[in-house]
């Protein structure tokens, strides 16, 4: 390999490597190693004997994300149940996405400017909650494997997949059952929709249409089977949603006809600007007006339509399906979050940073389509060229909006990092001096919104087995939060 080619490859590696280091740095300055919130439920269900088969072999196993069992076993036995360990796994999932994106952009020679925009979105801290809440690491890893599947599908689409790659694509939906949980729905539906479209068009190469259609048919069967398996397992699950309404969807719509549409639009706004940044956009306590948030959401929803049109106007169908797959997958996540979270009857729940990873998928697809459309050869017809310039200008304007929103959210989050770390340290102090608190006070300190007795049971498990904060050899007493 010549020096020039090595430098060319390096150009596609510098920014993602920097992004990974940046996210690790953020985790280091914003987090402290202490269990809280959803970890309380996990402790009560699976600790201390994390290798107990009875906790694994349950009818609703696929809703519990099987991969977490092995990770929890390693974490407890080697790292004394460290939240930092789980956070690092989340970063590995982000790194897998970066590897897929970098490989694709290298293959299609995406320009440095568009690369920069894409990496800004990928490593934006609008995902701070999923990065710091280590219990959600499997979601980020599953997104990384989604990208692997989509790249394999892209190779099949253009007729360049090897037999091994085709086999791997067929196996991926079943492998994803180990990681994806409820997100297997958007993943499987995306594969099914794209493959159905592939069967109608014969893929990108008519000469390979028969072989491609056979693969598409097999992928549809594989994705459908994995989804059915998940739904069968989900049938046995018992769900608890603190704060969820008992009203039915029809009754909610009759009382507030615009609630669901507004919730749906706000999911699109949440992909660009994080919830806390919206609530303190101009200054602490000076939020972005609700009307502006809805307009931003509608703008981003229209951006999906624009990207869809540019994909076909840019003659990309014959060259690649990957950006369109990301677009479909991202849109499906907006639908999935709306369907699953309207029950909390809070429009701003759609802006939660815990969904930043899902919504990011669609943004990456949009930016890839914009980047590839920008490289399209100009039309020889003056009218066509003028229209193309107008579309490019719209794409550039939307890109600036997306990049600005993600940059501003990241800037605000960096400023808050020291306060997040201090909050985690207060949680650690509260855990270590839990006997000084009432059950209700301790639950409030550790963001536990269910039965306080369950929290005390979890703390006792940690203390008896010297796990998490109780594994520290020396701890200097700190003043209990909120006490003199």
Could you please describe the fold and organization of this structure?
This protein is mainly α and 484 residues long. The protein has one domain. 67% of the residues lie in helices and 0% in strands. The chain is built from 20 helices and no strands. It has helices at 3-11, 14-30, 38-46, 67-79, 83-108, 112-122, 128-132, 137-157, 163-175, 184-201, 209-234, 249-255, 259-270, 275-279, 290-313, 322-341, 356-374, 382-432, 439-445, 452-464. Helix 3 packs across helix 20 (452-464), helix 9 (163-175) runs parallel beside helix 11 and helix 13 (259-270) packs across helix 15. The radius of gyration is 24 Å and the shape is globular.
The number of helical segments is 20
Indicate the low-confidence ranges by residue numbers: 474-484
Tally of discrete structural domains: 1
Termini, distance in Å? 67 Å
Let me know the average pLDDT: 89
* Overall radius of gyration: 24 Å
- Helix-strand category: mainly alpha
Q: Beta-strand level of the residues, as a percent range?
A: under 5%
Order of helices and strands: HHHHHHHHHHHHHHHHHHHH
Give the helix/strand layout.
Elements: H1 3-11, H2 14-30, H3 38-46, H4 67-79, H5 83-108, H6 112-122, H7 128-132, H8 137-157, H9 163-175, H10 184-201, H11 209-234, H12 249-255, H13 259-270, H14 275-279, H15 290-313, H16 322-341, H17 356-374, H18 382-432, H19 439-445, H20 452-464
For the structure shown, list the relevant keywords.
484 residues; mainly alpha; 20 helices
């Amino acid at each position: 390999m010549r020096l020039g080619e090595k430098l060319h490859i390096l150009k596609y590696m510098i920014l993602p490597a920097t992004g990974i280091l940046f996210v690790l740095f953020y985790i280091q300055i914003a987090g402290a190693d202490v269990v809280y919130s959803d970890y309380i439920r996990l402790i009560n269900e699976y600790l201390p004997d994390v290798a107990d088969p009875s906790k694994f072999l349950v009818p609703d196993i696929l809703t519990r994300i099987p991969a977490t069992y092995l990770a929890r076993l390693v974490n407890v036995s080697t790292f004394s149940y460290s939240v930092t360990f789980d956070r690092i796994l989340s970063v590995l999932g982000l790194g897998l996405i970066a590897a897929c994106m970098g490989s694709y952009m290298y293959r299609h020679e995406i320009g440095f400017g568009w690369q920069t925009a894409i990496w800004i979105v990928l490593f934006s801290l609008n995902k701070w909650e999923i990065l710091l809440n280590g219990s959600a690491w499997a979601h980020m890893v599953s997104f990384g494997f989604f990208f692997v599947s989509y790249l394999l599908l892209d190779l099949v689409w253009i007729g360049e997949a090897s037999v091994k790659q085709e086999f791997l694509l067929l196996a991926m939906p079943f492998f994803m059952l180990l990681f994806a949980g409820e997100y297997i729905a958007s993943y499987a539906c995306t594969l099914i929709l794209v493959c159905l479209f592939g069967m109608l068009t014969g893929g990108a190469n008519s000469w390979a249409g028969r072989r491609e259609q056979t693969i598409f048919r097999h992928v549809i069967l594989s994705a459908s089977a994995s989804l059915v398996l998940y739904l069968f397992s989900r049938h046995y699950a018992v769900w608890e949603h603190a704060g969820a309404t008992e009203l039915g969807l029809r009754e909610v719509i009759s009382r507030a006809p615009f609630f669901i549409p507004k919730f749906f639009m706000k999911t699109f706004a949440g992909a660009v600007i994080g919830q806390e940044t919206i609530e303190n956009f101009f200054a602490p306590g000076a939020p972005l007006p609700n009307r502006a948030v809805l307009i931003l959401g509608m703008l981003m929803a229209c951006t999906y339509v624009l990207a869809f049109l540019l994909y076909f106007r840019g003659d990309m169908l014959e060259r690649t399906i990957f950006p369109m797959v990301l677009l479909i997958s991202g849109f499906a996540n907006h639908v999935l979050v709306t369907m699953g979270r309207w029950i909390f009857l809070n429009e701003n729940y759609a802006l939660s940073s815990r969904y930043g990873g899902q919504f990011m998928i669609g943004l990456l697809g949009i930016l890839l389509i914009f980047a590839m459309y920008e490289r399209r050869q100009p039309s020889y017809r003056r009218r066509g060229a003028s229209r193309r310039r107008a579309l490019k200008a719209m794409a550039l304007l939307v890109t600036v909006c997306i990049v600005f929103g993600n940059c501003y959210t990241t800037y605000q989050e960096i400023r808050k990092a020291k306060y997040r770390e201090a909050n985690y340290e207060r949680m650690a102090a509260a855990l270590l001096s839990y006997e000084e608190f009432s059950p209700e006070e301790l639950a409030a300190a550790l963001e536990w919104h269910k039965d306080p007795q369950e929290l005390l049971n979890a703390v006792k498990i940690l203390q008896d087995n010297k796990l998490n904060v109780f594994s520290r050899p020396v701890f200097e007493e700190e003043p209990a939060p909120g006490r003199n």
